[in-house]
Design goal:
Length: 134
């Protein structure tokens, strides 16, 4: 009987530590979605790097998205992506810790440049901040 009690206690401690760790990591995570907003029939290839680590290339048909969860507290945290579509290739720093304040971040990739959508508080409207490609 004592063995069951010890096992139960060990399991309880493990779960508490697991939940605490997951919560503390989640508190520092920023979710970033990047949507292909080029219109019907245009496929977008996105290749991203997070703090120099290659996250791989993703091919997105319109209007699909790719999502990332990054640690905003990581020193020098930066998500940089290249964007390719028929006839063009550009890049953009999608997230830079200490500079960007979106949480979550919803980017719309367009031929004219990336646009960050932010929900306005109160009236439920959408504010867009559009940028030029790098």
């Amino acid at each position: 009987m004592r063995t069951i009690d010890r096992n139960s206690f060990s399991l309880l401690v493990f779960h508490v530590l697991l939940i605490t760790t997951a919560f503390s990591m989640g508190a520092n995570a920023v979710h970033i979605d990047i949507y292909n907003d080029f219109g019907q029939g245009v496929t977008l290839t996105i290749h991203c790097r997070y703090n120099g680590a290659d996250l791989g290339a993703r091919t997105l048909p319109y209007p699909k998205a790719v999502g990332f969860d990054i640690d905003e507290k990581a020193r020098g945290a930066k998500l940089s992506c290249s964007f390719q579509w028929p006839g063009a290739s550009h890049s953009y720093n999608v997230y830079i810790a200490g500079w960007d304040r979106c949480h979550p971040c919803k980017w719309m990739a367009r031929k004219s440049g990336p646009c960050l959508e932010a929900t306005l508080f109160g009236d439920g409207g959408i504010d867009e901040q559009c940028h030029n490609w790098d």
